[in-house]
Amino acid sequence: MNQDERKALGGPRTPKDRVTIYEVAQRAGVSIATVSHAMNRPEKVNAATRDRVLEAVDALGFTPKASAVSLARKGVGRIGVLAAFSAYPSYLTRLTGVMDACRDQAIDVVVYDEEPQQAGTSPWLSSLPATGRLDGLLVMGATIEGRTAERLLERGLPTVLVDAFHPSFTSVTMDDELGGYLLGQHLVGRGYQTFGFVTPAPPSRDFVSPGEHRLEGLTRAIREAGLPTSKSSWLITEDDFQGGLDAAADLLELDELPEVIVANHDALAAGVLGGLRARHVAVPDDVAIAGYDGLELARVVGLTTVRQPFAETGQIAAQLLLEQLSAKKARPVQHIKLSPELVPGDTA
Question: Would you say domain 176-307 falls under CATH 3.40.50.2300?
Answer without folding.
Answer: yes
